[in-house]
């Protein structure tokens, strides 16, 4: 269940940050398309969060599995300020556990909030902070650790 | 090999019982034809049974059964014979119906009987070994004899016929062909169906018996799979979908357990697993269990998705995957049509998308692997033969695991397959899958997913050289990516579009796409941008642009031709481009220096243009258009100018106010810049409202960001240089002709003209419908209605600078209180804003309101007194009394009372 | 930013060693930093109102970022959309996060329905600032006003916030929050929809 791509989407739906584990040209473009297409599902889920349905906890930020494709699974997370985090993981036969994904997202959210507190960062611009990059690298490492556990 | 990979139609359709019709001469005999039509296409479909009728000639040879081999000793050569399905669905009937024209009261009964019997013998011989029953239907022209009628002739004859043919009495039916045979036919069909079901049940029990034997011998014999498949198939034919589903699932699980891990067997098992999975999913959907179908499919794909097979033929794996996905998508969409509700994350479109992705992978592999094979001469190629069993490799047939495979044969076959693969035009397989996916996603309003699919489709169209279609498709997609500011994907799409535009020789589109590609937002290298800009600028000097890299050579030639045609076309091409909505390489900002302008001061307007292209850009003209068209002639730059990269150029305009627009808001309608040659190719870039779109995702140049846009300004009237005053001695007395002295003094440097001063009463207080105040120009001797006015105007011709005039008007009020009057002076004066412009005539106005309070002049009270100066109430007749009036002036609050005394006497 | 409570009975030795992730900052540090901010701004402006504006701008930066930080820390997935609830949220949660106590009073102005007053007795920012007599209208709580304004603007409640000291109680600072008409109209619409 190794994460292969992390994306941060702003509230106007353009990417603030998109990084894949192996930055090759071809694959990167594919991730761009994939993440962009998954925003559709995010929007749908966010709009239905307003009306709590049975079984769905309305107090959650975590949106769950957005789009299961053959190679990758896409997970989403939406914050209060309409900033969305998208995580793309490799599709293996093992069952992905929600708790692990939630933990990864939590780390990402904390890293994002930290970066936001930086007075030199203007909200709405591309994220270039090195600390954030390091945090994302550690998320990649952590997700690899999940695979090796199984 | 590839033929057996494909799903056969027999698998895709739900199976139907096969009943063979014999003895029907459809071509010559009209009655036979009618009977045949009734059976196959007749009415009352809802009551009909799922039977497939086939018309066999009477001497048709049915496939022979094979001898049951001794299962314990020999190993089966394969799981499922490749023609088994076909045989079961089309060849081996469960029932043979023999039609024979014979009436009960036929004169030549004996001969007919023997004829019938012999024909039956022929059929029986052909069906030897099978359990298929034969049924005779006598086509009769006489009306039907009711059942149970003890007419000895018919029953006698019937019994005789049956015994002669060797069939039980029940297998004989009579079909009187009257006008409406439908009822009979349906009854016959019911009977046929029952017999069919019997046949299949018999077959199932036969296989079960085999299975028992085999299982006793060795519990995990590979034949068990075959048995299970056959049993499940027959169960499905018998219309027991729930049982069939369970059996298929058992078979699938058994397959998973017993897979041998050698390469050949993998292919075979994969294929059979594909069949089983398809059947399971189909039945799940029809049993209204979509979730289990999806689960099964996922499991199936997860398990077999990794088995790529031998490397040179790995494209076949992707073909198989693609087929699996699209077949699943098909059954899913069938279910959706039947009323299943799909959601955005689980809908047939997803599966079509996956099928397309597999097909694209197949295409890539085939390009890489089969290139060599495509150039081998045909003499070295040999089509591999069809195998007897599904999924087996032809070069392994007839061998056991000990003997080595024939290497040369193998290589030849592989190469042939590769050559065949190479010839296939994959894009035409991919495009329908993608368009099906798009249609499903449209139901869920997944705009972005649809854009992604359209991009893939556009790419495929480009590959098959359908450039028009690609252009049309991708144009819509560009909007989405630009609006959401995904620059990387936008640049990739734009590059494809540029190639298409180049290959089609579309001048306008080519320029449009290059314009966006060289802008600041698109993340491609500077060399790329320089190259694109160079090409785009070459357009305007009448040349054709250089071909795009990556364009195949053969198409380049035709492109050259198209560009040459474009160049030689008669009319000069001038076109307009909306630069404000695109991420153009030139950005525009309009700034009015002030937010409001007086009518006699010049308007200052700055237009800033900034180019982010790598090379300098030269433009020939710049025009600013306003909503008020009178201003259009002022802002024009006619000489060519150059924009250096990343430097903002400022164009300053100042122009006078057009007096008719005083009080309006002057707004810029559009800014137009022209690039190109006069009379040659020209492009006009238009920025509507004078501003280009602001994309916030990328940081902008701080100097550029500091420029604040102000694209409208309010035109205020000129400040009047006039002193207006009204003099009056407040308060007025009621009904007095109260004089108001209106004075006008001019502080203008130039003489005024057309000075009009108007006074009016603003509060209209009426008592009993009559106005309580009026204005008079002069005191009339006898006031008539003509003189009384509510508003008054004074006209003066002109006033010199520094002069002062005054005039008296009169106000007469009849009620006490405060009245408000308004005075307004308007005049026109010439002004010169700047020497080079014409003098303007400004209309100025000044007004204010002032109150006038009215008081009663004096009050009169009186006292009655007696001659002794005592106050009395009443007066008596003929008695003198003193009437003393008292006058109180209200003016200053003091009462100055004069008390004259009148001595009166009533007479 | 939180302050340490001035409880005379507890000394430094009574407190636990590691504050376990409690997000506290030393009061003196904060006061020092703030005084530097005020001095820096003071040296670059020419009038009092400009000083207020500068402090307010700095506060807006901080306020805007507080939205995301609070969102992360409070773990509630929903933001308040109603006006009064949002102001209560500011009074309780935001103030607690910033100053470790709640703001004292929240009132609506009787004159206009778009103006609200938030009162705080003895705000931290003003504790170490003595205002000279000739600049008696200086109130460094303009910084906190900026925080509130940044927070409200970022959560789509456009407003203007002003800070001033009450005449009769100079230690109490009032923050006047004036919302734009669009916000009030929207709130009324939401009210009617419910």
UniProtKB/TrEMBL annotation, chain A:
<dbReference type="InterPro" id="IPR044760">
    <property type="entry name" value="TRAPPC2L"/>
</dbReference>
<dbReference type="GO" id="GO:0006888">
    <property type="term" value="P:endoplasmic reticulum to Golgi vesicle-mediated transport"/>
</dbReference>
<protein>
    <recommendedName>
        <fullName>Trafficking protein particle complex subunit 2-like protein</fullName>
    </recommendedName>
</protein>
<dbReference type="InterPro" id="IPR006722">
    <property type="entry name" value="Sedlin"/>
</dbReference>
<keyword id="KW-0931">ER-Golgi transport</keyword>
<keyword id="KW-0813">Transport</keyword>
<dbReference type="GO" id="GO:0048471">
    <property type="term" value="C:perinuclear region of cytoplasm"/>
</dbReference>
<dbReference type="InterPro" id="IPR011012">
    <property type="entry name" value="Longin-like_dom_sf"/>
</dbReference>
<comment type="similarity">
    <text>Belongs to the TRAPP small subunits family. Sedlin subfamily.</text>
</comment>
<dbReference type="Pfam" id="PF04628">
    <property type="entry name" value="Sedlin_N"/>
</dbReference>
Automatic annotation (TrEMBL), chain B:
<protein>
    <submittedName>
        <fullName>Trafficking protein particle complex subunit 11</fullName>
    </submittedName>
</protein>
<feature type="domain" description="Trafficking protein particle complex subunit 11">
    <location>
        <begin position="266"/>
        <end position="519"/>
    </location>
</feature>
<dbReference type="Pfam" id="PF11817">
    <property type="entry name" value="Foie-gras_1"/>
</dbReference>
<dbReference type="InterPro" id="IPR021773">
    <property type="entry name" value="TPC11"/>
</dbReference>
Automatic annotation (TrEMBL), chain C:
<dbReference type="Pfam" id="PF04051">
    <property type="entry name" value="TRAPP"/>
</dbReference>
<dbReference type="GO" id="GO:0005783">
    <property type="term" value="C:endoplasmic reticulum"/>
</dbReference>
<keyword id="KW-0813">Transport</keyword>
<keyword id="KW-0931">ER-Golgi transport</keyword>
<dbReference type="InterPro" id="IPR007194">
    <property type="entry name" value="TRAPP_component"/>
</dbReference>
<comment type="subunit">
    <text>Part of the multisubunit TRAPP (transport protein particle) complex.</text>
</comment>
<dbReference type="GO" id="GO:0006888">
    <property type="term" value="P:endoplasmic reticulum to Golgi vesicle-mediated transport"/>
</dbReference>
<comment type="function">
    <text>May play a role in vesicular transport from endoplasmic reticulum to Golgi.</text>
</comment>
<dbReference type="GO" id="GO:1990070">
    <property type="term" value="C:TRAPPI protein complex"/>
</dbReference>
<dbReference type="GO" id="GO:1990071">
    <property type="term" value="C:TRAPPII protein complex"/>
</dbReference>
<dbReference type="InterPro" id="IPR016696">
    <property type="entry name" value="TRAPP-I_su5"/>
</dbReference>
<protein>
    <recommendedName>
        <fullName>Trafficking protein particle complex subunit 5</fullName>
    </recommendedName>
</protein>
<comment type="similarity">
    <text>Belongs to the TRAPP small subunits family. BET3 subfamily.</text>
</comment>
<dbReference type="InterPro" id="IPR024096">
    <property type="entry name" value="NO_sig/Golgi_transp_ligand-bd"/>
</dbReference>
<keyword id="KW-0333">Golgi apparatus</keyword>
